[in-house]
Amino acid sequence: MSDVQPSAGRRIRNPQDFYGGLALIGMALFALWAMSDLSGMHGPNFGPGTAPRIFAVLLGLSGAAISAIGVVSDGPALERWAIRGPVLIVGAILFFAVAIRPLGLVVTSFVAMMISATASPAMKLVPSVIWSAIVTAFCAVLFPKVLNLPMDLWPRFLIQ
């Protein structure tokens, strides 16, 4: 049996698609605003804002199409919002931004990965530690060695 409920009397027959499309439109508008100071296309030459502007417009158009589908097709009702996942993912990003300079890439990457792993209620400790170690090792080789980015691998108090 399907999860789709009949839309008896509802104007928005598929609220998940409708509001998801609105969120995409909002992201596209934010992107267009954020890149408003970048120059666009000059004759046949692309400027630094041309490709991002094209992608933002395509994202907005996709969002409009998804919202329109949400109005004309039946779909599931909105579910309760889970706050744990988004809060922990944003927390992991903010931790990384604050801690990368004083703690170095290795410690910061590992801890940020562990914070983000706890966003899922299905998180298991041992696989999360193993995966965090693998991603951290990859980052420790990729950024300073392969891409030649000047970043400390270890905390500053250990280096001095």
What gap, in angstroms, lies between the N and C termini? 64 Å
Shape: flat
Secondary-structure class: mainly alpha
Number of beta strands: 0
Order of helices and strands: HHHHH
Question: What's the pLDDT, averaged over the residues?
Answer: 88
Protein model, in words:
The protein is flat, with a radius of gyration of 22 Å. It has 160 residues and is mainly α. It has 5 helices and no strands. It folds into 2 domains: 15-72; 84-159, no CATH class. The model has no long low-confidence stretch (mean pLDDT 88).
Note the main attributes of this structure.
160 residues, mainly alpha, 64% helix, 0% strand
In short:
The chain is mainly α. Helix content is about 65%, strand content about 0%.
Describe the secondary structure blueprint for this structure:
Layout: H1 15-34, H2 50-72, H3 84-117, H4 125-146, H5 156-159
